[in-house]
Design a protein that fits this description.
The chain is of the alpha/beta class and about 325 residues long. The strands form three sheets. It has a four-stranded parallel beta sheet with strand order 2-1-3-4, with helices on both faces. A four-stranded parallel beta sheet has the order 6-5-7-8, with helices on both faces. A four-stranded parallel beta sheet has the order 10-9-11-12, sandwiched between helices. The relative contact order is 0.18. The chain has three domains: about 100 residues, NadA-like (Rossmann fold); about 100 residues, Rossmann fold, CATH 3.40.50.10800; about 90 residues, NadA-like (Rossmann fold), CATH 3.40.50. Helix content is about 40%, strand content about 15%. Helix 1 packs parallel to helix 15, helix 3 runs parallel beside helix 4 and helix 4 packs across helix 16. The structure holds 1,3-dihydroxyacetonephosphate and iron/sulfur cluster. The site of iron/sulfur cluster has 11 residues, from helix 5. The site of 1,3-dihydroxyacetonephosphate has 11 residues, from loops.
């Protein structure tokens, strides 16, 4: 007799693995203080889809990295409090150099962005001199400035397709690069060897294990996941596109989400009648980005009070990174 598969499903929204231990009254007081300070200091609060629920809740705008950088440029406020990781705040500063961009915690980095330096990209460019360089936005401004164009997980295939060159050097994410190469077979794509450990840790076997407990569920994966995971997914898209992917499956009640668990808060806000499960069953919470959980409400308040930590990008580097980002913005998104 075969026993039913037991999948311990952790609830990342009820217990997000990090965050403050404040009581409801303290949280409400902080929220009020933050709103007042933001008004007083002419600041907009932006939060990435992976931030702690308490931070997403207080934000004026929640979205993916590029979307937030574009919003930062468009809003009337002179100060942007960027609740995300360093490269995202840097992109916001590059696109809106006249604004003050504050990152509440300077330690909020990104392993993927750290996997390529300007020096290592110079070496790769020397090895592939006739290749156009396409760099994922999860990278430093220095690396962007050395690239022909940037891309995001939402527009990577369109960006590669839009280039006149047939030979492409794709940096730094190997999983996104391989996914793009398969979508654009007319191009010859050399892929750099970086990855996001939060996504790269997931295997199709774990996803299938969760799926065996929820056989009717739709699987949605971020393209930073490995090829075996992408192959079992029904939808492969950026974090913000995951919100609209649900619309394409009106009869599905359950969605298995192969990305960082912070997105579940947004998905539940938008679709309260659906069930969302992180693809690893969140056993030990493997799909957890520690950098994305480094900002809490106290830090957001302190950032507004003290005007810290201001992001600065050297003008020459900013000009190069802006060129690569703006060239990308001019390319229409895949979906
Ligand atoms: P998005 O640009 O899709 O939000 O992804 C950013 C990220 O850090 C994924 O790990
Ligand atoms: Fe970087 Fe990965 Fe965290 Fe995204 S999830 S910020 S790519 S380490």
């Amino acid at each position: 007799m075969s026993l039913p598969v037991q999948v311990p499903i952790h609830d990342p929204v009820a217990s997000p693995c990090a965050g403050s231990d404040l009581g409801a009254a303290e949280v409400a007081a902080l929220e009020e203080e933050i709103r007042g300070l933001a008004r007083e200091r002419d600041a907009v609060i932006l939060a990435h889809n992976y931030q702690l629920p308490e931070v997403q809740k207080i934000a004026d705008h929640v979205g993916d990295s590029l979307q937030l950088a574009i919003i930062g440029k468009q809003v009337p406020q002179g100060t942007i409090v960027f609740c995300g990781v360093h490269f995202m705040a840097e992109s916001a500063k590059v696109l809106a150099p006249e604004k003050r961009v504050l990152l509440p915690n300077l330690s909020a980095g990104c392993s993927l962005a750290d996997s390529i330096t300007a020096e290592s990209l110079e070496d790769w460019k020397a090895r592939y001199p006739d290749h156009a360089v396409v760099t994922y936005v999860n990278s430093t401004a220095e690396v962007k400035a050395l690239s022909d164009i940037c891309c995001t997980s939402a527009n990577a295939a369109s960006v590669v397709r839009s280039l006149p060159q047939r030979k492409i050097l794709f940096t730094p994410d190997k999983n996104l690069g391989k996914w793009v190469a398969a979508k654009v077979p007319e191009k010859e794509v050399v892929v750099y060897d970086g990855c996001c450990p939060v996504h790269d840790v997931l295997r199709a076997a774990s996803v299938n294990r969760v799926k065996s407990a929820k056989p009717d569920a739709v699987i949605i994966a971020h393209p930073e996941c490995r090829g075996d995971v992408v192959d079992v997914a029904d939808e492969v898209c950026s974090t913000t596109a995951m919100l609209s992917a649900v619309e394409r499956h009106p009869h599905a009640r359950t969605f298995i989400v192969a990305t960082e668990h912070g997105i579940v808060y947004q998905l539940r806000q938008r679709w309260p009648d659906r069930e969302f499960i992180v693809a690893d069953g969140c056993i030990g919470c493997r799909m957890h980005c520690p950098y994305m959980k480094m900002i809490d409400l106290v830090m957001v308040r302190d950032t507004l009070l003290r005007g810290k930590h201001e992001i600065q990008v050297e003008p020459e580097i900013a000009a190069g990174a802006r060129r690569a980002l703006e060239r990308m913005i001019a390319v229409p998104r895949d979906a």
